[in-house]
Amino acid sequence: MRRLLARWSLAAATVLASLAVAASPAHAYANAFFPTQSSGNRGTDVLTIQYLLANAGHATGADGVFGPATATAVRSFQTAKGLGADGIVGPATWGALAVTIRQGDSNSAVRGLQVQLNAKRSAKLTVNGVFDAATAAAVRSFQSHAGIDADGIVGPTTWRNLVWHYEYALPNGNICDQDPDGNGLANWATGAAIGQLRTGIANFVSTGQGKVPLGDSGFEHGGDIAGHASHEVGLDIDIWPIRTDSAQCTAGRITWQSSTYDRAATRQLVQAIRAAAPGHVRAVWFNDPVLISEGLTSTQANHDNHLHIRYCEAVHPNSLYDC
């Protein structure tokens, strides 16, 4: 029965998506949704949730980390709104948090908007909670980019499209860009995936073993990537293994069988990636048999020379990305 319901849900979602595409402007994100966030997540979307909670009178630290204090604040907000108090920010909780704001407003919800625009569209706004002319211009620019009414008012549609929009991984002082498959623009992923990746890599880089090469993640609005069967929903990211000379960003790519492969450092990298996103790493595919035996990675064809990280969420429209 569960399989039948799952097939029915997938078929219904496909039909609804097709209808949305037909009814929407050419560049609108028919597949946009509020990404579920929960304990263990981190990044821009979590930071926005924290600002929206503060705006609703349920303040918690605005650090971009979905820790125990944020989960408690979410439950308190959910109870006040008559929602299921599970501490998970799904579409219903997002919808209740994401109040309509416009030019002239001054509150924490505007801060949440500003951090979104800075992260997703490089708006370079001052995060001061003041919906000024610069913020209004950035909102209109995003609305035009998304193919929705560019009225400068941030209501449910703008919030949903903005929160769903992917974030670019670069520039970042701890990451170098490698494009072995010629997909130079495929460095986008969800706000959570980027936040979690950056933290894990930063913790590894602090050990002094060199920067981490980023392969392909996704395009700005998802979609097919040459040479990849997945990487379409912003939660799959490729990185390269670490070399004994720490020259993984400047020397050639290696495999786990290469003489310059540093297993100990690569182990540290995987551990750091996992620790930065507790409960939100579905898999790390990399064919080093030792790391596989340790439960750190899993085997997958064609993954001798790179690590494929698949992040996941408490609930996702695609079951392959459910934690």
From TrEMBL:
Keywords associated with the record: Hydrolase, Metal-binding, Metalloprotease, Periplasm, Protease, Signal, Zinc
InterPro entries (UniProt xref): LD-transpeptidase_YkuD-like, Peptidase_M74, Peptidoglycan-bd-like, PGBD-like_sf, PGBDSf, Zn_M74/Hedgehog-like
DNA damage in keyword set: no
Signal peptide coordinates: 1-28
One Pfam family named in its UniProt record: PG_binding_1
Residues of the Peptidoglycan binding-like domain: 42-97, 107-160
Source organism superkingdom: Bacteria
Name this polypeptide is given: Penicillin-insensitive murein endopeptidase
Origin organism lineage: Bacteria, Bacillati, Actinomycetota, Actinomycetes, Micromonosporales
